[in-house]
Structures are given as structure tokens and as C-alpha cells.
Design a protein that fits this description.
globular, 2 domains, 4 helices, alpha+beta, Trna Endonuclease, Chain: A, domain 1
Amino acid sequence: MSGVRPSIGDSSSSAVQLYSYLWPEYQPFSCSRAGNRTYMRCQTTTEKDKSHRGNASQFFVAGELCRRGYAAVVTLGNTPNTDVLCSDRAGTKFVHIQVKTFVPGTQTCSVGLKAERAFGPNFFWVLAGIPLVGSTESFRYFVVPSADMASNVAATHATWLETPGKGGKAHRDNPVRAVCIPPHTRPYHWSVDGYEDRWELIDAVLAGDRMISVSGA
């Protein structure tokens, strides 16, 4: 496959993610028109680095699940709420996983507004701490059931909205949602302490057992 190069005109989401993973030098672009001219804009280095880290984290999570005896595939952006689809060996039970990436050592991980939505007992969040190249930090994984993420993120955000800000002014609502990565804590941020390497929560669902919330563990 080394002699085959992707068409630079193929900027679909799945193609961009696959090409970026296989060919790190590939830079997806966006097009705009002004009059009869077409302008192409490549991603900045920062944007590209974030995109590559996000793509890599999904493959690392899928690899960790495969290492544990499951079948796991990366959806390459084709499903908005599922980054990794994982099944038991028989292919009869499934879990959907949303992956968010952070760099080990940072205090928070952004999860977005959808974190407040409980998708069901077969949906999980995996916050993947992927070290930078050359870093001595270890990989970190936090496995959080969707219901736990939704209830806690919504509750802490509601508390923030109800608490007066500087000068007694009310906080203005916004779509930003983030959680704290242990051992760090912040006011009005839920900490995912107690969820590190909790792969057994996925084991229970794929085994057909009733999944128990561990919120507050």
C-alpha cells in the first residue's frame, strides 16, 4: 500500500481520519470560494496535532479492548455518538464507546455538551490519556458509564450556574463541559476519580450482567 496515495480531493470525514492515521504528513483542507477563485486552507499544526491525538486515542482504546478478548472497531467518524464499537466474541452483545483525549499531567478533559445526555446502559465514555511522543508519562484510561457521566456533569454545571460569579453577577450558560483528571480537582468540575481502568464495567455489560453505577465511588 506504500505506493498508493490518497486523492487530495477526498476530504470526507472518514477519509481524512484514515489518511491522517496512515500518512502523518497528510494535511486535510477546507475549501472556500470568492468569485471565480477557490481557496484551500490546510489545518494548522496545532489543529493537526489534536486531530492525530484524537485519532490515535481511539485506536489505543480499541486495541486495549481487543487485548482483553473483545472485538473492537473504530468507526472513523461515521457515527456521531460512537467512536469505538465493541462486542463479545460471539458478536451478540455490544457496547458503544465515546472517546475523549487528554495529555497525561493535564488537570481536565473536555467532554462537551453531549456528556449531559445518558445514552443508555450500553454506552460508555473512555477518557484516554495519551502521552506525547518522547514523554515518560504512562497511558491512562478512565472508563465511565454514560449515566454516571451525564448525572454528574449536569449536576456540577447546574451548581455553577446557580452560584454567583464575580461581583455577584450570574454566570452565563455555555456549551463547555469538562471533568477533572485525578489527582486534580477544581470547583464546579466533576472528578472521574474512581473510574481509572474500570474495564470490568464493560465486562459486566458484555457478559449480560446488570451494570451498576459506581458514581461517588
